[in-house]
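#data-curation
PF: Archiving a pair of folding outputs for the training set. Convention for this channel: one message per protein, sequence first, structure tokens after, nothing in between. First:
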Amino acid sequence: MAYILADAGYDMWILNNRGSTYSKAHVNLNPERDKTFWDFSFHEQGVYDLPQIIDYVLNLTRQKDLFFIGYSMGATIGHVMCSTRPEYNAKIRHFVNFAPVTDTVHILPPSYNIVFSVFPEFVKSLRAQNITELFPRRALAGNILRSLCQNGSSMQSICVASIFLIVGVDYKQFNPELFPHIFRYFPDGSSLKTAEHFIQIMSTGIFREYDYGTTGNRIMYGSDAPPKYNLSQVTAATSIYYGAGDIISTKADCEYLAKKLPNAMGLFKIPYHHFNHMDFMWATNVRQLLYDPLVNLLNKYK
């Protein structure tokens, strides 16, 4: 998508989220030794990181606003920013959402409920071992995944089925030959707290700040429960794209979000019935189904 938009004349800036391979620098904390570095979720990325990035880009390019395209948690981060730092709405000409995750109103698949039920014990075990970084990019892990999932491997069908269990089934649009390329950079790491926060909003259905428990919430927020993100503050012009085969960000979720936003300009279904959460990146026909129509949309707001 970045190359397509660049060819269409757009100046592209691609973000590296905090905690990923290219975003681990800190003025005094070492992410390999200091657990404090990993004390963040997508909340901090929306409140602190994204505003700094936007200001950097606008100052350097001498522009007053920009287009922001957020995919999945990237869209979540955008909504955190616009709701908690509402002055930044004026700096976004158009906020494009690909499969956004905010309030979850759809019924979760049984597989999700099973994972969510055991996740607290999993977190407790990791914290007991002082593990606060999740899924870092490691050459050995990448090599193993490439070996297991490459063409000719008897495990490839299990690799594909495992991914579809999480994102939705779409055999036609996913090319398994991509596996060796995907596992060169994916997964790329984040904090355990980010995963906790993400699962929190999906399992409870409520788009709100990180839940520290009743006692912790009283200390952090002065209330028993964490505050909800106020989506009425997201006043930037917004478009939302969803896939009918997506089981993470569904049509119902996106419709609910569109009704909450004061300036939703469009809710667009990808014109392919099985389009899933992963297809926004890797679908064989993603250019025709999504990227070319996106260019047309952006051109309207130039």
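PF: Second:
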Amino acid sequence: MHANGATVVVVEPKPNQDSNTTNYTQRAQWLRAAVLGANDGLVSVASLMMGVGAVKHDITAMVLSGFAGLVAGACSMAIGEFVSVYTQYDIEKAQIKRERESNEVVANNDDDEKEKLPNPFQAAVASAMAFFVGGLVPMVTALFIRNHKVRMVVVAAAVSLALLVFGTFGAVLGRTPVTRSCVRVLIGGWMAMAITFGFTKLIGSLAL
């Protein structure tokens, strides 16, 4: 209060929550599902097409096998992610209930607690859509190339480039090392395609 009797009210500025309180744990719920789904779709469909291409030169056989793997894989990813995250949801919800009953934690806001819980539907949709997007890369690439040998090389190159993109995208959003993420997903994708191609080629040769 000043000498003239006027009252001064000091208002403290609110902290900038957007810049300093980003919750990367919550982001990881959908980020993990999306990145895993995209990588799985890319590698699974590409490996399946490579395996078929090892014994069949027909473009129709490769594309149809890729499409079947795309649909089946997206459904499998969605169901698996839903069940997994829902189990985590039940566990965390039960833990909150136990803490309340034992008076270890006093919950003042139920909405805040619900936001902290994992979202099974969000994870399932993100995983399925990401798988579908990732699996489209080798399929779309193969559609435009008629020569079998060129098609196989171009599909492998396109998948490698997409793996680098997905690895970079996941690392940037999750604030993790980009180089390590890219190398990890690239080597894993190459190994999956090479193993599938090699074993299918071997079994096809023995059968023929």
